[in-house]
Amino acid sequence: MIQVGDTLPQSQLMEFVDIETEGCSLGPNPVDAVAASAGKLIAVFALPGAFTPTCSAKHVPGYVQHYEAFKSAGVDEIWCISVNDAFVMGAWGREQQTAGKVRMLADGSAVFAQATGLTLDLTSRGMGLRSNRYSMLVRDSKVVALNVEGPGKFEVSDAETLLAQARAA
Q1: Statement: 12-168 belongs to CATH 3.40.30.10
Q2: Would you say 29 and 63 are in contact if contact means Cβ atoms under 8 Å apart?
Q3: What is residue 17's predicted lDDT score, i.e. its pLDDT?
Q4: pLDDT at position 21, please?
Q5: Which residue in the list 31, 55, 81, 86 is annotated as catalytic?
């Protein structure tokens, strides 16, 4: 399992962007996790699935709500990572009103989740291999704080916990 002090694994996430901007086209775009976090302070949170109850009602809204506080604490970007495809993450981002606040990054084949060692097997619930629920603070591609939830829990990966760690970093 990834630990504090480790570098993010070399992996490619995918991001769907609704509006074409300079250097960013519509449709799924690759995001190299290490390159995209180089020289930045990133608040990362991961969860089992888009549109799921806890993720939609608590996890994502907390990060959207505290966006300005994260920026004030020196965080450059907030990333939400889930084992879903980029189209689902884009639709969920629209529904959660994350535009300009939280990057909704797809780990469609669970490559990032497996590389971090933070997987959750939900095959018995019809969801297959997913990401565990966690948050981490990443500075210049290295993990400086890591908060991994126990099975079925939402206690330490919330926005408030990671925000306090960002303020202390």
Answers
A1: yes
A2: no
A3: 78
A4: 63
A5: 55
